[in-house]
Amino acid sequence: MHSTAILNYAKRLRAMAHLGLTYANNEYDTERYHELEQIGLEMMQLLTGQPLEALSVYFNSNKEYITPKTDIRAVIFNDQNEILLVKEKADGKWSLPGGWADIGQSPTEAAVKEALEETGFTVKPVKLLAVLDKRCHPHPPQLDYVYKIFIQCEIIGGTQTAAFDILDAAFFSRENIPQLSEDRVLPSQINLMFEYQLHPEKQAIID
Questions:
Q1: Using CA atoms, how far apart are residues 89 and 42, in angstroms rounded to an integer?
Q2: What's this model's pTM, rounded to 2 decimal places?
Q3: Domain range for residue 111?
């Protein structure tokens, strides 16, 4: 296997370990995620020749240079021009299928994965619709600085199924949008997605 591919796997291991340590709630899990983190660092050391001390500092979650997080949303319409929304278990409100992008996934891969996990539908990415800086839109305050990426997708298979963090999934017309989880998506952004559906020639927005 090419060393670049192995390094990417090592980065994914480290990202998984960091996520696990963030949410671990017992000593057993914490110990295992620290071990996973160490394995990832040792793999990086073998591939880069950098000392473990330098790598540990570089990948420390508290390092000064912090970059935006990326939120991927799959935009899916049916033949009746209704949009697919999911009901979030976290707040009982509705959003577009999606979530945080993972290390080692492209934006389209993340959209496909999130759509499948949250709705049961297999989708094909079609085109980029918008890249939005959350700061520029009236979302509720949030600690993280976030870029939101909206990707239009088409259903190519699967059947609707439940997910552990999703209460329901359904298609809605533009006139019948339910209460939205505004931390995740705004009414203005849903309206924008309908504009793209009605006007396929519309150019992607970046703001």
A1: 38
A2: 0.79
A3: 69-206
